[in-house]
């Protein structure tokens, strides 16, 4: 898969799966909405009711900044399968200009956020590696 | 989400996302087909052409057996979102009765495997924790 296709598929996907690692070296994975600017992926912890465990990704990134995020297509015709995965260093934003810009970007991509704005924090993933399959 | 709903949603999902951790404590996530028997999830490295990186989950599990697997539903109506996640200890099966049984189970769930049988190895995830949202 060429670079332009990888970027286009990442930009336009509506949901991704983000994996992080806990301080005890256990994996964690969540589905998430996200937006991309340049080589950074932004995702917000939104305002919907969640258990405290929903913040596991934030706790994990504070302990270990390694993160990976995958967008993929499943189809019963397995010749149509694809995925794009980015490996990244994660940062947790609790406020400031980048935080506000991320919320604006997320609101522009998802009209759902215009009714129910995410409260944050925002996770910022600085991409260092792109992979695509096939 | 009650236990019966969690199990039913895991059993019937066609694709899951499996996360593991590398020896260097970096997260890895892949979409995968899978089948469940009792409290074990089985997934095979299939016969489709893959780069050597496709085996990262196997390398990771040999170094760190912690694994997590998530099935989820995305919908533009965010009141319909749900996910089920299991945390597990992973084992890599290269052959034997459990390996053969896993391939049979996968073949029964996915007719695609009847045309293109997975070569293995098989990843077995022994579930120790279930979570569901909402």
Could you walk me through the main structural features you see in this protein, from its secondary elements to its overall organization?
The structure is a homodimer of 134-residue chains. The first copy, chain A, is an alpha+beta fold and 134 residues long. Chain A has a single domain (3-133), classed as Pnp Oxidase, Chain A (Roll). Helices cover 26% and strands 39% of the residues of chain A. Chain A contains 4 helices and 7 strands. Chain A has helices spanning 3-12, 56-63, 97-109, 112-115; strands spanning 16-21, 27-32, 35-37, 40-44, 66-73, 82-93, 122-133. A 7-stranded antiparallel β-sheet of chain A has the order 2-1-5-6-7-4-3. In chain A, a hairpin with a 2-residue loop joins strand 3 and strand 4. The longest helix of chain A has 13 residues, at 97-109. The first copy, chain A, is globular and about 45 Å long. Chain A starts with a helix and ends with a strand. The model of chain A has no long low-confidence stretch (mean pLDDT 92). The A-B interface holds A 14-15, 17-21, 25-31, 48-51, 53-54, 64, 66-70, 72, 74, 76, 78, 81, 83, 85, 87, 112, 116, 131, 133-134 and B 14-15, 17-21, 25-31, 48-51, 53-54, 64, 66-70, 72, 74, 76, 78, 81, 83, 85, 87, 112, 116, 131, 133-134.
Concise synopsis of the structure shown:
The structure is a homodimer of 134-residue chains. By secondary structure, chain A is of the alpha+beta class.
CATH topology of chain A: Pnp Oxidase, Chain A
Q: What does the largest sheet of chain A look like?
A: 7 strands, antiparallel
Q: What level of helicity do the residues of chain A show?
A: 25-40%
- CATH H-tier superfamily of chain A: Electron Transport, Fmn-binding Protein, Chain A
Inertia-based shape of chain A? globular
**Oligomeric state as shown:** homodimer
């Amino acid at each position: 898969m060429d670079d332009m296709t990888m970027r286009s598929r990442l930009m336009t996907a509506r949901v991704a799966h983000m994996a992080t690692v806990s301080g005890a070296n256990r994996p964690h994975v969540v589905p998430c909405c996200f937006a991309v600017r340049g080589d950074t992926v932004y995702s917000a912890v939104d305002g919907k009711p969640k258990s405290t465990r929903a913040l596991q990704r934030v706790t994990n990134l504070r302990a270990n900044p390694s993160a990976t995020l995958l967008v993929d297509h499943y189809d019963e015709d397995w010749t149509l399968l694809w995925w794009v995965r980015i490996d990244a260093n994660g940062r947790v934003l609790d406020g400031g200009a980048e935080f506000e810009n991320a919320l604006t970007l997320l609101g522009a991509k998802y009209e759902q956020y215009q009714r129910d704005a995410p409260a944050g924090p925002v996770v910022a993933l600085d991409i260092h590696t792109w992979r695509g399959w096939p």
